[in-house]
Write a structure and sequence with these properties.
- The chain is an alpha+beta fold.
- The protein has one domain.
- The protein has one helix and seven strands, in the order E-E-E-E-E-H-E-E.
Length: 106
């Protein structure tokens, strides 16, 4: 059974990569989705967060403006710092993902 938080992206060569959807926030009247590599992806740091703008048609647009990326990431971090109680493990997370790795707080 496929994990519902897994999203698949393909590169120009058609190779498919799995990413975790780690959150979505609204910022400046737009919606942004956050992803993290679920497997080793060439050129992507495993701890790196990938941010896309989610359009009204549910298309994902890459965000090119570094100032926008920084603002959206900071807003996302603030939202995550409110804490989320992970039901699976009982830990409270204050970092950018809550996919029950529990490595963030330990």
């Amino acid at each position: 059974m496929q994990d519902e938080n897994i999203v698949q992206f393909s590169d120009e060569q058609g190779k498919v990569y799995n990413f975790y959807h780690i959150g979505t926030i609204d910022h400046a009247e737009k919606t942004y989705a956050f992803f993290q590599a679920a497997e080793e992806v060439e050129g992507v740091n495993p701890d790196e967060v990938i941010i896309y703008e989610l359009t009204d048609d549910n298309d994902l647009l890459p965000v090119e403006d570094q100032a926008v990326l920084d603002a959206v990431f900071n807003a996302f971090m603030e939202e995550m710092e409110d804490g989320c109680d992970c039901e699976e493990c009982g830990h409270e997370h204050h970092h950018h993902h809550c996919d029950c790795g529990c490595e963030d707080e330990e």
